[in-house]
Design brief:
Structural class: alpha/beta
CATH class: Alpha Beta
Order of helices and strands: HHEHEHEHEHEHEE
CATH superfamily: Vaccinia Virus protein VP39
CATH architecture: 3-Layer(aba) Sandwich
Strand content: 15-25%
Strand order of the largest sheet: 3-2-1-4-5-7-6
Number of strands: 7
Shape: globular
Bound molecules: magnesium ion
Length: 209
């Protein structure tokens, strides 16, 4: 039976209700690409409240893969107070910082994906120091500063198996459409031998030869 890219109505409702920065067409493309990834261990960098995690987690369940989603859950620069993408309702009064982990936990509970998705709460710099597991899929959607975006690519893309998929979000070819770091990471991946196999909106899909 061919794999269907459609989310169940229940999961679609959870994804729709979850806060995030993933347009519907990119969510569909993300899930369709994941359904074509090798089975194995998948890693998402940049979880936020888990919108994309529902799409990737659904595909992981369908294909028998396991998904790890990594985030420190205190928000990127653009999510902090005074910035364009700040959501005041996500501030933890105890720390005064953004806190998205409880929202992710609710998302995974509502989606019934707790047994497919392993939640890893840390910075990518912490995890990059000890990560050794081969990856069948890597979704880069974390901090968009040049330094961290390049770090995340360097630390984790090297673990992709041959045929593994590298997905990069917020890739804008024209500077007037968005920040440079994801575009620079995309170009670096191509320079280093990854083949572009798909593009939808700002989502680029590459495959390790
Ligand atoms: Mg993004």
């Amino acid at each position: 039976m061919p794999l269907s890219p459609a989310l169940s109505p229940a999961l679609a409702a959870v994804a729709q209700a979850t806060r995030g920065f993933l347009p519907d067409d990119e969510a569909e493309a993300l899930r369709a690409a994941a359904l074509g990834a090798p089975t194995g261990l998948w890693l998402e960098i940049g979880t936020y409240c888990g919108k994309s995690t529902v799409h990737l987690g659904s595909a992981a369940r369908t294909t028998g893969s396991a998904l790890v989603t990594l985030d420190h859950h205190r928000g990127s620069e653009e999510n902090q107070p005074g910035w364009e993408w700040h959501d005041a309702s996500l501030v933890d009064p105890h720390t005064g910082r953004l806190e998205t982990l409880p929202h992710l936990r609710h998302t995974l509970w509502d989606a019934g994906l707790d047994d497919v998705v392993s939640v890893l709460v840390a910075t990518t710099q912490q995890v990059g120091r000890w990560w050794t597991s081969p990856l069948a899929l890597l979704f880069l959607d974390g901090n968009h500063t040049e330094q961290v975006a390049q770090h995340d690519y360097a630390a984790f893309a090297r673990h992709l198996v041959p045929g593994g998929l590298l997905l990069v979000h917020d890739v804008f070819e024209r500077p007037e459409d968005g920040g440079r770091p994801p575009w620079n990471v995309f170009c670096r991946a191509r320079d280093e031998g990854f083949a572009e196999v798909g593009a939808t909106g700002s989502l680029r899909v590459l495959r390790r030869p």
